[in-house]
Description:
This protein is mostly beta strands. It is 7% helix and 49% strand. It folds into two domains: 5-130, Immunoglobulin-like (Sandwich); 134-223, Immunoglobulin-like (Sandwich), CATH 2.60.40. The chain has helices at residues 5-9, 22-25, 48-54, and strands at 29-31, 39-44, 55-61, 63-64, 67-68, 77-81, 87-92, 99-110, 118-122, 126-130, 134-136, 140-142, 145-152, 157-165, 170-178, 182-187, 201-210, 214-223. The chain is elongated, with a radius of gyration of 21 Å. It starts with a helix and ends with a strand.
Amino acid sequence: MGQPIVELLRNKAVDTTNQLALDQMLTLKQVITGEEPSIATFELPISYDSLKQVGLAFLLVDAVNNEPTIPGAGAYQECDRATNGDCLLEWNITFEPPGAHRLQAELFIQGQKSKSDYQKYYGSVLPFYSSNVCQFDNDVFDSHGAILQAKVFDPNTSYSIELRSTDGKHIKTIVGKTTTGNIQELWDLTDDKGSIVTNLQVDAVFHITNSISGVAILTLSRSAGR
Length: 226
């Protein structure tokens, strides 16, 4: 588009005097949003509106030489617009194992000639420690029912799963205990009274109790077919 990438992506409402270089634009800065510990959010000083026209920004999780080492790592993430116009990378860490992680920003710029004409740029590695006590697994949820799956890191764990509508109304509570560290519960789409639930957008609120976490609460939001 006839401009250097740094000029094209510069958030001119914020970056008025420092004139950030590209490696500075790709430096992750964690910001606190109130969605912790389930969601970790990182800001990039890149114009969200400009980036939407030419490419995408991603959060690489546990990559080596800019390539992911674990399939699906960092899969549950979004890039949104910050109030100042920067890019916010929001990462749902409840699908990742706890412990130390390596994070990097990845910038994908689409070329003008063809789909195969593109460039990628990478930021420096940011160490990050996740203390999540429950790792959600790929669940099954469709118009026939749901299988709610998770992994905990104390094999002797008690739990309850409260199913709620997205506006907070109680639907049903499932109570259980695991001695293997694996949680797997089948929900037949009925509420506590046995009536079929027709609104298939729900929050599954996991209450986890064990010797490691004490009591922890994590929310899994799902819609049928997603």
